[in-house]
Prior knowledge:
This is ATPase. The chain has 13 helices and ten strands. Helix 4 (96-108) packs antiparallel against helix 5 (112-120). The strands form two sheets. It has an eight-stranded mixed beta sheet, with helices on both faces. Strands 5-6 form a two-stranded antiparallel ribbon. The two termini are 24 Å apart. It has one domain (6-245, 301-328): Rossmann fold (3-Layer(aba) Sandwich), CATH 3.40.50.300. Strand 8, helix 10 (214-229) and strand 9 (234-242) form a beta-alpha-beta unit. By secondary structure, the chain is of the alpha/beta class. The radius of gyration is 23 Å and the shape is elongated.
Amino acid sequence: MRSGRSDDSAAAISLRNRSWPARLHVVTGKGGTGKTTVAAALALALAGNGRRTLLVEVEGRQGIAQLFDTEPLPYAERRIATTADGSEVRALAVDPEEALLEYLDMFYKLGMAGRALRKLGAIDFATTIAPGLRDILLTGKVKEATTRTEGGRRVYEAVILDAPPTGRIGRFLNVTAEAARLARVGPIKNQSEGVAAILRSPMTAVHVVTLLEEMPVQETADAIAELSALKISVGNIIINGSQPPLLTEGRVTQAELKRGLVAAGLPADRETVAGLRTEAEAHLTRRAVEEGLRDELKALGRPVVELPSLAGGVDRAGLSTLADTLRQRGPGADTLG
């Protein structure tokens, strides 16, 4: 990303804080909508003025490493991108086993004894008999990174979580509240209560990524209803892969198409014109469907941000393009459509 003068940087920070005020940004969406790409772009967008952001994944897919063309991420915070003004994006792949070892060392001071549990298979046993424990460990690590300070300053300007898809997001984020309710005393209860409080505070916002297609839009509506019922704050609806209209007319005649083909020096025989008209009508029909879906999303009562379709595919340049769009288009900004 391009750096500018100090006053430009200050203006960018101010805009970012107004548009994306949370410190923990949870990004979810139906599978195939590009939520990992959007999470990565948001991490780039929120870095600036020499500050750091942390991009976290919890599903073990190593999607972040693929996007940034790096080696598979370890259970350690590794720098994966640097901006022109010296800001950086770090990334972390949270491994449940390593998180459990860290948890045992932190709260029970087991140290090497805790690591010996790995050889006995106790960790697999624990996460198998208590499936919710896995999500508690994952969200607990994210909470720790979000609230960590050094020298009286936050380590990260923002933490961006590439979260599970919409069909599982409510259960994933609510597991700590359930654990806090069931556990009466001890570190697990305290840990769970702390994470649940962060997730339900203004510090956190869940952004839902969708495409202008029927199933992703329906899952977006379902996820927002579920999260609202759980009292977890929903941030923005992010429409990914938005394309500008190729035609603005409500109807295209064969005569108009023929004149356009002739003017462009292209074949204008009957078969070519008829085929082009069929494609034009299909495009207009699809455009009308997309406008209807866009209206459905706006009716959900959350700010809508649109990201352009990347003709060249998702590479580092493409991520920067999406990051620039996210930085400029916060809640209330005009959409791309």
